[in-house]
What we know:
The chain is 36% helix and 15% strand. The chain is built from 13 helices and 12 strands. Helix 1 (10-25) packs across helix 13, helix 3 (62-80) packs parallel to helix 4 and helix 4 packs parallel to helix 5. It is globular.
Amino acid sequence: xxxxxxxxxxxxxxxxxxxxxxxxxxxxxxxxxxxxxxxxxxxxxxxxxxxxxxxxxxxxxxxxxxxxxxxxxxxxxxxxxxxxxxxxxxxxxxxxxxxxxxxxxxxxxxxxxxxxxxxxxxxxxxxxxxxxxxxxxxxxxxxxxxxxxxxxxxxxxxxxxxxxxxxxxxxxxxxxxxxxxxxxxxxxxxxxxxxxxxxxxxxxxxxxxxxxxxxxxxxxxxxxxxxxxxxxxxxxxxxxxxxxxxxxxxxxxxxxxxxxxxxxxxxxxxxxxxxxxxxxxxxxxxxxxxxxxxxxxxxxxxxxxxxxxxxxxxxxxxxxxxxxxxxxxxxxxxxxx
Length: 337
């Protein structure tokens, strides 16, 4: 069968890669399109899978997003028309569902954060199937038009599936010049372009970085999302910060880290699954997955930089984790295969 996937954010490459590889092992032909945002294209290039880049990101405002979305939907429609796709799969793409509805392509939309309202009002109504983790109560999704049998919930977290066979690579530590005898702190900046954050940056992150700069026993790696964020951090004059210029092996870095402070979602959950202590500085409305991790003590919420504990974690903590078969997630995602 001909299967189409649309990757519109960095995390989508990680989430869908094992599903794409499983499809191809099973003899299906998979076509990948992608939107240039953050490190999405870099991760695709590192993977080496053929892909077609379409569109651009519209920024943090509703107007900018609307203009970019209208332009990209047209590009995506032109690309997909005539290719005779049998089905399609995306994790949060707002361009694939309307095009699939227009071209009558059966498609599934996935997500694990339920409060991106504008996105879900479109995707859940236009997609044939909505696939989410079972941590999200079904009643939170009904207002988007996602109800059984369209709504399907999978057990566990998406990270437990796409990291099922993941083993961290120490090469990333050498590439970044990290001293393994020091406490390794990883900080992930906010997706300030996300509509649900209204373009905001979190002042706590800057306060935390100033504190970590004064800690001689710690190395701090800051993973920014945009060149503008990197430039802003350089202007702080914090000379000991490690600021990678391009995408790095973030999962390995998180696995070896002694702590993570992040304003995002996927990396927080990766840390929680890998056994790395994680503090969230996310400023949006709390989703059900984060509520679950907080109840289990695997996610904390930072209110003061002094709360972060600079201690080495137990080595090999990432080995003791839940692993789930990506083939099971694929079975739920694409019933048409």
